[in-house]
Amino acid sequence: MAHSRLVVGLMSGTSLDGIDAVLLRVSGSGVSTRFRQLAFIERPFPGGLRAMLLRNSSPESSRVDDIARLNFLLASLYADAVRDVVRKGKGKMGNIAFIGSHGQTIQHLPQPVRLFGKTVTATLQIGDPSVLATITGITTVGDFRVSDMAAGGQGAPLVPYFDWLVFRSRTKNRLLLNIGGIANITVLPRNCAADRVSAFDTGPGNMVVDSLMHEFYGKAYDDLGRVASSGAVSLQLFGRMMQHPYLKHRPPKSTGREEFGEDFVRELLRHAKGYGREDVIATASQFTAFAVYDAYTRFVAKRMTVDELIVSGGGAHNHFLVEELQRYFTPARVSRADEFGVDANAKEAICFAILANETLAGRPSNLPRVTGASRPVLLGKVCRP
Questions:
Q1: Which domains does the chain have, with CATH numbers?
Q2: pLDDT tens digit sequence for 228-253
Q3: How large is the C-alpha radius of gyration of the chain?
Q4: pTM of the full structure
């Protein structure tokens, strides 16, 4: 690649399961962007950190001193992940041009409230990029969501710009589905320009099932969807979940742990007494798949019939979810991002490396039609070591 740079992308998502780090060789920017993946690692959080992050993602149990310390701790853990992925890719830290780091979301509040005569939205990602830049000695771009929200947007989803750069097609109508803690879709009509892209969060991805797996089995997730596949969907529980008001909200919209976190799971468990554990897991998994299809039928199908559904994120490995998606979306083809040259596990980490590349090139990379922002803006804070 001519004039290429070595860059690292970092992602720790709403699943709160750890850090994804990717080492890329990148050249160009905008539609001329080219990249090659050199190494990828997944680093689980230390024992007890997930519980501490969960506790500090809830207004009822968070502490400002915990949040301040977590902000620095996560930056240090990110730095370790950077060193590890560079070592795996047989690179040198001194040769890394920059880091793109999403940070760890502990609050995302896109719905406006009035405070002291001002209309306020907010989002908070911790794992401070300035701390990360100083520890590693590498320029770091982070805090990507804030400027979009300052311009009136939801601050999410931001992956659709990357989806458009990499997956647009002249001949196929495509849906890009990422199933992390939250599930989101990007709508790419055939031969679409950037200003025709639409995208939004559909509802829970792995978040609810992961919480239930921890509650029932002490496990972090449903490996390959085996537990869901062994259960039967409860129509009563499923019907109750289908009534969640988020499904009817029109895009642009985004969601997170505030809607589908601990309170949602506790309410579900209250109504699930008497049901087998595997049946509750199957029902929650079914809801994830249904919410994606429901979003498509409500907000996309009238203007675009999907030809291909391309899945990434941890949920791409869940056979139950993928089979249910194929059942819902037939005759469209359901495939994984890997078939298109993008590691399904690394996709979000790759995305934030590419978004950092756009920012450093002076290119706005939010999509106002997607986020609801009033205008295109540069994303992220550039922190020099």
A1: 5-156+346-383 (3.30.420.40), 159-340 (3.30.420.40)
A2: 999 999 999 999 999 999 999 999 88
A3: 20
A4: 0.91
